[in-house]
Prior knowledge:
The chain contains 15 helices and 14 strands. The chain is an alpha/beta fold. Strand 13, helix 13 and strand 14 (397-399) form a beta-alpha-beta unit.
Amino acid sequence: MSLxxxxxxxxxxxxIFGKRNAGKSSIINAITRQDLSIVSDxxxxxxxxxxxxxxxxxxxxxxxxxTPGLDDEGELGEMRVRKAYQMLNKTDIAVLxxxxxxxxxxxDLRILERIKxxxxxxxxxWNKMDLLTEKKSTKNTFEKLPAPANPDxxxxxxxxxxxxxxxxxxxxxxxxxxIYELKELVAKQMPSTxxxxxxxxxxxxxxxxxxxxxxxxxSAPKGRLxxxxxxxxxxxxxxxxxxxxxxxxxxxxxxQKLGSLTKLVITDSQVFQQVSAVVPPEIPLTSFSILFARxxxxxxxxxxxxxxxxxxxxxxxxxxxxxCTHHRQCDDIGTVKLPNLVRKHTGxxxxxxxxxxxxxxxDLSPYxxxxxxxxxxxxxxxxxxxxKCAEDQNIPLTNYGTAIAHMNGILKRSLEFxx
Length: 419
Ligand code: SF4
């Protein structure tokens, strides 16, 4: 897989935060050497978060997120600031850009606190060092003193913020000073656990045969497989095993031909029940959703969360949440098939509410439980954030595949191979 084809959820997400005109967009342009953001002297050019996937050395494949200004005003402005804060949930490394000639402000401090609360590795960039006075621009001052550039603008509160040299750097996008060093500093913050997980390859041996069941109905995208299917095939190949991809209609014959050679069957959750009836009990069976919950470190939570389906009462509301808005193939499961299955399973009058994309309510108290999609387009950080929200508020959370397996009575079987 070339770096350019690395799926977005697998890329390191670098969020660029700061006030309007602190120079966020110029920083992005300087480190990428491209005109990705529109740079203008008019405050607030970035009104919505802008995502750009790219290869950024020495980090490799990343997504840069250019966020709206933290000091945006008015009703719309407040909405944009909220969006900027929401982007923290997608961010693996935060870059806080501060206008060095103006100093650190309340807005900078506020987001810095949130960054620390969320334990996001960060870098503080004191931009516009070229605007500082001659006296302050001595080499030693800039390279060794991680203090605010403008002491007059620096509040007492700000002074108490601990800024260590490992988190802080002075740069000038105008002269290009310290841009290379900035990239190196950002790279040093890289979380060490990134890309250490496996979808299934850790449980396979070379030459194993794995059968993948992919129903091709009207909701399947034309001419291609969806991302979790592509990633699983690649992971199987990485284990030097063989991936055999079939539609549910060809599964029975394929299994008969393979006989005892089949190591595992992985199915799309939509046809879990039919597939379970076809796969002999001695052949392990699981689903893409369950594998991805394991891959993202959530399996235990979603399995526990599925039990809440048995405790639902008349009038309870379930939140059904999807990680993206542009994959129609999941819509049908979330808005139609899953609600029908829940009503049938519980026999109760259950209400449903739906969210998609970056929308995920901070307050989950109106819901008895949450059923989330597989989250293949969400970064590990964002998925963990959603799970943490649910856990903190004591609201059970499960995912589509686990919920469907539970309601069809095949969850235990679906987990056996993974334990
Ligand atoms: S809805 Fe969820 S599982 Fe489906 S493609 Fe989007 S992120 Fe992936």
